[in-house]
Design goal:
- With 83 residues, the chain is α+β, with helices and mostly antiparallel strands.
- The chain has 4 helices and 3 strands.
- A 3-stranded antiparallel sheet has the order 1-3-2.
- It is globular, with a radius of gyration of 13 Å.
- The termini are far apart.
């Protein structure tokens, strides 16, 4: 199983909103992650920085392809871009 990590940040004052949105993650987005073979997805927060980690059951390339082709992921990215 391949592992993947990423780093990002959110805008000042947006931590509460970031957490709120992720606490109510869309079921259809969870389905996309499952289809992509993503397991053990965790996000940590330090200040305004985010560190994510997940394991790819079918490899990183497959997980990336499924996510990049998903209209749900595109919609989520649009939903999150203001924070």
């Amino acid at each position: 199983m391949e592992k993947y990590a990423w780093k990002a940040s959110f805008k000042d004052g947006c931590k509460e909103e970031y957490c709120k949105r992720h606490d109510s993650i869309w079921p259809e987005l969870i389905d996309v992650l499952k289809t992509a073979g993503i397991k053990n997805y965790t996000i940590w927060n330090v200040g305004n920085e985010l560190f994510g980690y997940y394991e790819c059951e079918n490899g990183i390339d497959f997980a990336a392809k499924v996510q990049s082709e998903s209209p749900i992921v595109k919609k989520w990215d649009e939903y999150m871009k203001d924070i």
